[in-house]
Amino acid sequence: VSSRITVAIFGVGLIGGSIGMALRQRGLAQQVVGLGRDDARLNLARKSGAITASTTQVEEAAKSADLVVICTPVKFLFEHVQMVTQHCSPTTLITDAGSTKLNLVQQVEAELPSANFVGSHPLAGSDRSGVEHASGDLFEGRTVVVTPTEASPEHSVTQLTDFWESLGAHVVRMLPAQHDRALARTSHLPHVLASALAALTREDELRLTAGGWLDTTRIAAADAELWQQILLDNKQNVAAEIGNLCQKLNEFKSALDGNDSETIKRLLAAGKQRRDAVGS
Amino acid sequence: VSSRITVAIFGVGLIGGSIGMALRQRGLAQQVVGLGRDDARLNLARKSGAITASTTQVEEAAKSADLVVICTPVKFLFEHVQMVTQHCSPTTLITDAGSTKLNLVQQVEAELPSANFVGSHPLAGSDRSGVEHASGDLFEGRTVVVTPTEASPEHSVTQLTDFWESLGAHVVRMLPAQHDRALARTSHLPHVLASALAALTREDELRLTAGGWLDTTRIAAADAELWQQILLDNKQNVAAEIGNLCQKLNEFKSALDGNDSETIKRLLAAGKQRRDAVGS
Hints:
Two copies of one chain form a homodimer.
Chain A: E1 6-10, H1 14-25, E2 31-35, H2 39-47, E3 53-55, H3 58-63, E4 67-70, H4 77-87, E5 93-96, H5 102-111, E6 119-122, E7 143-147, H6 154-166, E8 170-173, H7 176-200, H8 211-217, H9 224-233, H10 235-257, H11 261-276
Parallel strand pairs in A: 1-2, 1-4, 2-3, 4-5, 7-8
Antiparallel strand pairs in A: 6-7
Helix pairs in contact in A: 7-10, 10-11
């Protein structure tokens, strides 16, 4: 990434704001233009050092951008790619930061064949949102999945990979469908689980929660509207994983019903082995 | 708690070690005697400041103790209460730190009617174990459940409550059966869930995990043998909660199958509301 590029960030929240801060702190961009609907939020982003300029007009942000990163909610991504495409140069690389990839990539390729778009998913979300929680280090050591297809120009994939790596991330290349299947297990199912567990806990028992419950339910605090969109956009994979999880839970239940200590220990050891492989 | 009391700690790991450190740092005990099987572990506990003396002989630890706290694995608790009872004075208060209460309390009351025993459960575990992770602050602001019954002398309950409060904890008094039902939801089910989720994640997908997965599965790293004992000791409640959770998960699944965004959002919002009520 040349230090003279201009980057437009559509949606300057946790992810968009962190991209802007990382670009500025590393001296990677000449200009970082924040695009959004809300002037107050854009001013906050500017004050916190995430962007150098801001606008509420897509045209103004898109026309001079070498790279546009769309960090808006999943539900709006296609519409926003479309809006950017109408106003940017044909060479402008467009990417996103959405948690699901297949539907978006398919729709862009079908309806916007001239768009220079390659999908991205930085695995760096949290239960928090907003530029007030953004950080220039957010992508340091994190994984970003990029999801080109046969239709993606190789130089765009290279440019996008270089971009995320310049922010400190590891880039993993996957097909959109493969991404959505894997993330159903590693991200979307954990959200469903955390939420179900939190909802199941009775209000008068909350004082009896400790570290285990707090960790296990933490992401249930994430924004319900944003996560509804993600889960629904990947509904077949998530529904299948809910089924797989209940099957695994029923193995525990059968072992408990049968007083089968060896099986319970074996099941727990299998979970521990996977968890220990990752670290804290 | 008078500063002249002598406390014996049976099993000086994370919990036992933290009790010893808290007692010593707060100047609450004249002597803290560590009791265990392994001299090397006891020496480590002594070096880390958790205990002032150590022994592998129950008699030696029990005979002069005003209070004995049994912090050994759930499976051994009854046996260890029995051993301590054989050697301590009739006025010595005996408690434990086990994660389940009903079976232990019932067995002690049935088989050791003369024991001055009241059950405890400090909600301060973690995925780690061993005195090397112990801390004198572990109980600061944490909840400790004490589970007296009609058979428990009120002065013993007061003494035990004062003890845990002197370590910085909030004490909640519950019946043993009530404790086990509630903890099935707030602690034991989260362990099963974390383990099931971790085990379900494919090895080649571990690089695609991020904060949500890491939080949700953290306690899957806990000791499999210890947790097998806990789950089995509370098997009916845990099995029932696994059933309740699968029912809740199937509400998500039906909503996904039916493309029902309103229901998904409502379910997520319910989980968020409970989680937000607790804090980080």
